[in-house]
Amino acid sequence: MKNIYLNIYNPNFSNLKKAKKNIENNNIIGLPTETVYGLAGNAYSNKSVKKIFNLKKRPATNPLIVHFSGLKNLKKDINFNKNFIKLYKAFCPGPITFILNKNPKSKISKMVTINKKTIAIRFPSHKVAKNLLKILSVPLAAPSANIYSRLSPTCANDVADEFKNKIKFILDGGRCRIGLESTIIDLTIKPTILRQGSISAEDICKVLKKKVNVVQKTKVIKSPGQSKLHYYPGIPVLINKNYPKKNEAFITFGNKFKNAKNYFNLSKKNNLAEAANNLYRTMREIKKKKYKSISVCKIPNKGIGRAINDRLKKASFK
Ligand code: TXA
Ligand code: MG
Fold this sequence. Notes:
alpha/beta; Rossmann fold; 16 strands
């Protein structure tokens, strides 16, 4: 398909250098990662961080994730601990975000962390994100590149659709390999998963050799990704359904469902990773086809299926 957007750039070396210039000039860019696309800016610059919050219409009470290329120079911003090193060695670069204590001397914008002592950090494995971080001398603050409470984007066109020409530069890294946001684990307390993702609690338990908590519901919102209506596709979502209402879109999983115009199968092969990868793309497609609501069949609650169900539950919140 012909690319209709003028602000989407092939991630060759010359465009990576342009992306670098944009970041140094406190501009915001669209950045591919293996999970979802991010809205990236210089984490040390209040001006950049303010732009991110404005573009996303994100409440100033919801902190951002900071992306680094590796452990080099990390100590000036972050206080490490043993659990972090173990998980870093096992999973990084990759789809996991750590909540750690910020080094009090860090120059990271206080708006990123909403003045808290803790900070969320991540080391993306996508080649384009890695290459850009390597040539930058600053880390990147990057929330998912969507308007607050909406679906995360999983390709460059989704980012352009969401922000039109409000973002001037989007690096095209193709479709995201995972398609759901990273697992978030708080390591400032007894290891606690705040947001589920493709790296599961079981995967983490094996590395830490101890039980990790998974936050299901919180009264005090510790991570606003836990706020109730989130990942909203713009039309009502109903979960755990056996069939759709008349004229409604039906998201299915597995081979027991028929092929019909309003049926959208996340994985005919019963593959949960494939289903996760198709989830947001499918919901966007359904919205574009002008359906007025979506029913979703029951999705197995294991492995990355837990992350899928977490997103669906929040998308269906009334
Ligand atoms: O996969 C991902 O993590 C993507 C890509 C672009 O890296 N990013 C992402 O960012 O999903 P965002 O901003 O959409 O979600 C980050 C979540 C938010 O729910 C935020 O509240 C939480 O991380 N968070 C950030 N800092 C935190 C902190 N210090 N303590 C607890 N939660 C925090
Ligand atoms: Mg988000």
